[in-house]
Specification:
341 residues, mainly alpha
Amino acid sequence: MEGRREPGAAPEIQSLNAAAIRELLSLFMYSNSSATLLPAAPLPHRTAGIWWGLLGVAAFSFTVPFTKVAVDGMSPLFIGSGRAVLAALLAALALGLTRQRLPRGIQWARLAIIAGGVVVGFPVLTSYALTAVPASHAAVVTALLPAATATAAVLRGHERPPLIFWIMSGVGAAVTVAFAAFTSGGLGSFSWPDLLLLGAVGAGAVGYAEGGLLAREMGSWQVISWALVVAAPLMVLLTAIAVVEQPPAASAVQWAAFGYLGVVSMFLGFFAWYRGLAIGPMTRVSQIQLVQPVLTIAWAAILLGEHLTWPTVVGGLAVVLCAGVAVRTRAATREKTAKAA
């Protein structure tokens, strides 16, 4: 009979539909949404953000070892630019399917800064550096990235962290430089790959910090997608130049590593990482990034057969410790400020 329904059926269907809609909206937020602010209400599973963040960090931890695999059959320029072109195609598809609104005004300039850091700077510089140093060595130097990102966020956000933050950030930088110099032939020497890796850390830190701020206006996955699109013309040009100068002569394994860099490291990894930050609490989830260099060193030993020397182990642990103290100090300061407000 018309208008008749089974008792209790409608509420269950409505509940399932509502849950599905909420999940879809959380994964594909529109341009006026904010991945750093959603969800406003506490979620029933408070550890979900931690697990999503860990998934993102696990995805990123393979970046350095797989770059090391790819550089044996492709030029560093092709790897750094080509993977961005692949990711940009996926980003354009995602933006088009979800009908995202175009960035406005100054947002284009900020996206250019982000693109220069995480789409151009970090991938290209690390690709060139890994032609001359082991993946485990690069993992130790780039372990400075969490503290560098926190420092960039402090400067960009005009925060006033306690003195211990600056002390531990400085000690972490000093330990990184000392490790790089020692493993390059003595404390009096410093090789060009280490300069490239430090440049990559600086570029990545600026890109992450600016991206975190802009994500509050546009949504997090939208930021990385638009940054990829903004950088696409330059990266297509660089890819074409790389192919002409040195055509790729890679094996199936090396092409698979390149595919991972483009699809996961440059694109899908950010979905899980930003999903974790969206669930939060952000100050706690962001600290999971400190696990990344440890995982990277482990993958370098397992996948590449690199021998772990005691300077690598000690240097990596020291840098992670310093970065951890710096990031936790900043997180605690922000939590106190939020409670006071």
